Amino acid sequence: MTPLTPSDIAPPFGAYSHGILAPAGGHLVVTSGQLALATDGTVPDDARRQADLCLSNIAAILAEAGAGPRHIIRLNAYVTDRAHFLDYMAARDAWLDAAGVAVRPASTLLIVSGFTREEFLVEVEATAWLPGG
């Protein structure tokens, strides 16, 4: 994958790429938005742990397709308050660092009014590109 970072626009606001060019020939993997719902039905009570769980769920979905964090070309995240965006970004950056992701995916972060249940603070969805025909 090739990061797209034009020199005639402002640099990214965080650890992400403005765009990603994926080579021809491959499979697109798209996840639904993942909320911080553990397998036992519990929801962490802080934004950082929720973001960690959302990203862990995404990793599990990608693994089903034979992909991993290094295959992500775009992350979309939603938080319920501006106070949560730093926790999300810290979780995202640590997760990508731990996976050895050199080319940071394109990224969007939105502040939203809420999710299906009040205790959810973060939702994350991913688009990945897996090489192969």
TrEMBL record:
Pfam families xrefs: Ribonuc_L-PSP
Keywords, ordered alphabetically: Hydrolase
GO molecular function: hydrolase activity
Key word Transmembrane helix present: no
EC number per UniProt: 3.5.4.-
PANTHER family: BLR7761 PROTEIN (PTHR43857), YJGH FAMILY PROTEIN (PTHR43857:SF1)
Name this protein carries in UniProt: YabJ protein
Species per Swiss-Prot/TrEMBL record: Jannaschia aquimarina
Source lineage: Bacteria, Pseudomonadati, Pseudomonadota, Alphaproteobacteria, Rhodobacterales
Gene: yabJ
